[in-house]
Design a protein that fits this description.
The chain is mainly alpha-helical and about 300 residues long. About 65% of the residues lie in helices and about 5% in strands.
Length: about 300
């Protein structure tokens, strides 16, 4: 085999990526091409670039080989716009519908986007190079390529309509966007949980339930603290003016009174004094918490904490 591009005995070793996206001829059409070349020879040259890349004529090359005819190549000048040429010859020659063309254009574009090319710029370039599809159709095809890649080849081959595939891809896209938005909100609440969702350890719904359960547990604990606080404060309110309280010292000095005290404080005065000290420490802490609450609210209730040390 010759190493000179386009010479007798030479064969290209690679096909241009865009040209390769176009579907091959059907078996019947290919057999007709083989018979025609065998009988009449090859009328249209197989186009190759100067570096030996096959640009147009994959099926003609295969047909000449099968027919036993030496293929005729044409080496394109370096200044030829290869992609524009591929769109021109394939878009006009093949019986491809707009959906197929859009899918081929999107697949070509998508491959480049994977390499970091600018989406908008490339989309405009493709449209200008003769794909013959609108920007909207190309956009839909790109959505299919991104979200339902398994159906791309079926669309290119004509087995599935672009519009039907787009509806399914859009559903997946919408769910994905909702998930992404959910992750944004989740990261604001709990970055660790959000990372577990990204790592697919749990789903968004499960993460939200964990957060709601935490909120419920926090509220339950807060309810308990507020209920206890309300009960204690209501019970102590005005107790300093209680005649019954003021009469206790004299009453408990009697055996009957002290026995009555031990029904509530089994160890008598010692236990009473100990519980009082703990209660006083608790009230000091309650006072500090109330000050913090008032300060945190910036006096929004129009009141300041008033308590005696």
């Amino acid at each position: 085999m010759s190493d000179v591009v386009g010479s007798e005995g030479w064969r290209p070793t690679k096909v241009h990526p865009l040209a390769e996206l176009f579907p091959p001829l059907s078996d019947d059409a290919f057999d007709e091409l083989v018979d025609d070349i065998a009988e009449n020879g090859q009328f249209h040259a197989i186009l190759v670039s100067s570096d030996g890349t096959l640009v147009d004529g994959r099926m003609r090359l295969a047909a000449t080989d099968k027919a036993g005819v030496e293929p005729v190549f044409e080496v394109l000048p370096d200044d030829v716009d290869i992609e524009a040429l591929i769109w021109s010859v394939n878009g006009k020659r093949r019986q491809t519908n707009k959906g197929q063309l859009a899918m081929i254009a999107a697949q070509n574009l998508f491959a480049k986007l994977q390499n970091g090319s600018d989406a908008e710029q490339k989309a405009c370039v493709l449209a200008a190079k003769g794909s013959g599809v609108t920007g909207e159709r190309l956009s839909r095809a790109l959505t299919v390529a991104r979200y339902t890649p398994t159906v791309v080849q079926s669309i290119i081959d004509g087995g599935m309509k672009l519009e039907a595939a787009y509806e399914k891809a859009k559903e997946i896209k919408d769910r994905s966007e909702v998930r992404d938005l959910g992750l944004v909100e989740l990261r604001k609440q709990d970055r660790d949980l959000a990372q577990r969702v990204v790592d697919r350890e749990i789903g968004i719904a499960e993460a939200r339930k964990i957060i709601e359960d935490r909120k419920a547990a926090t509220r339950e604990a807060r309810d308990s603290a507020l209920l206890g606080l309300a009960s204690v404060l209501r019970g102590a309110d005005g107790f300093d003016r209680s005649d019954a309280l003021l009469a206790l010292p004299a009453q408990l000095a009697t055996p009957d009174g002290y026995s009555h005290l031990q029904q509530y404080f089994r160890d008598g005065v010692e236990e009473l004094a100990e519980r009082y000290e703990r209660a006083r420490a608790g009230f000091d802490k309650v006072g500090q918490v109330i000050d913090q609450i008032v300060n945190a609210r910036g006096g929004k209730d129009g009141k300041k904490a008033k308590r005696t040390a």
